[in-house]
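Case study 2.
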Amino acid sequence: KVAESFSCVGSWKLASPQLWWPYLMSETPGHMYQLKITIISLKYGIDEYELPVGLREVTWGASSFMINHKPFYFRGFGRHEDSNIRGKGLDLPLFARDYNLIKWIGANSYRTSHYPYG
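Prediction:
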């Protein structure tokens, strides 16, 4: 036997959720809940998985993009995957530096240019 599959269903209800907002759109941006999933099996024991989750509503039309019912304007850059120092590929220190520069200048988004990481 290679694999076995079972189905599970669950729900999560919050009376007054704190919504996730992009940087510079709220005084409390990026609120994240910690979602914890626990699987209990008599045969295999307990398995737990934790994941940070942000709650938001995203809608768009022909001329608008809305986050949590407020208009969102994309201010950002095209980011290349290569650097003149280390060449092509994922470079975590360079990625952190670029992220800090993008945040410092007040941008709220970026698009990967050319060939994004695979």
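The helical segments are 92-105.
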